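Form 12-C: Joint structure prediction
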Amino acid sequence: MRIINDFNLKKQAEELGVSVWRTPSFLFIVMGVSIIIIMTAVYHLSKFYSSPEMVVWAEAFVTIILFTLGNLIIQEVEQMAKLNKMKTEFISVASHQLRTPIAAVRWQVELLLSKFGEGLTEKQKEKLENIDVMSSKMKRLVNDLLDVARIDQGKLILKKEKFDLAEIVKNEVKEVESLAKSKQIKIYFSSRKKIPAMSGDPDKIKIAVENLISNAIKYTLEKGRIKIGVSADENNLNFSIEDTGVGIPEKQQKMVFKKFFRSSNIARYQTEGTGLGLYIAKSIIEQSGGKIWFVSQENVGTTFSFSLPLKGSAE
Amino acid sequence: MVVEDDASLNRALVEFLTEEKFEIESALDGEKGLELAASAKPDLILLDIVLPKKDGYEVLEALKKDEKTKRIPVILLTNLESQEDIMKAFEKGASTYLVKANYKLEEIVKKIKETLRIK
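Section 2 - Result
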């Protein structure tokens, strides 16, 4: 039906996970149409019966319809909100529970490799290091899920500390050095001399920077180049990261910051990745009072940038 | 001293710290932890939050109220991480708050050494 398409009812139904007939928008339309029909009927009927009782009955009827439909709409919305809250709480609880076995695995492997490693063959050490890398990934995924749950619940709270953005970026670049080398990707980092300290949450900004850098490496095939720059102007600190990677297809560019989104062209090369990194980075940057954006061309590369205000930053 | 109710985590901490030449006592619940703190008078306490009998916050409060133990620095080692948890921990007098899954044993040792040096 055309009406269904015009009001994007189908899209809303999909997003909310209900049938079209139960979406709030549809119920509003039914309410509006009912009122129009009843008023028209009353008008015509009033031509035959000119009594004040008619008007009263008509108004009473309309009021009943309004209350009934209004109630239905409110119930639907409440139900959806409850489900949403339950989903977020579930993710929180499950992720917390996962943290204990993850800590246990990481520590046991660490003990084996560092304190009880005598007599281990090279092959065995290699296997253990593999477990170490994988359990680190688990830790990161759990942290991502918890961050997303917190963001969704509006509970992402940012500290207010003085920190140096250039330092954070420099440390991140050092951390990914070996990964970049293994893919023969060259990373160039430049920052203007005097980058003023800014007030905000360094741990969270570190996560945003980490996500952007790891994306650049992930989506740049072998022998690429990544240029990272940090600078400051009168009002803002600016960060940009340019890669010669696979780029983001134009049609998918508006989905890039959405939860769990991964563009189709990279899924061919890399099945790993949760699609949460940019969603988290955007939430952190925006809640810190900043802006994040990107420019991308398929098969040429992508440049992600963000700016953070120097004064009166984090909310 | 380590107060941690998960036996595997408890043992891992004890083993690693012993290898790092620390003298280490451990308890598996809050009540035992308090008793041990009063009798052994450790230089530092690693305290979990979710514990049977008395939880980490109750233990922390009791430690800070007791003359004998109030000067012992306490590092909270836990997997909870909400803003309320962290604020509560520092309000009650914790020196540091570490999420177990995010820290390797050697990083925890580094924090221990930092805290002891300041003290």
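Section 3 - Comments
Chain A has ten helices and seven strands. The two ends of chain A are 45 Å apart (CA to CA).
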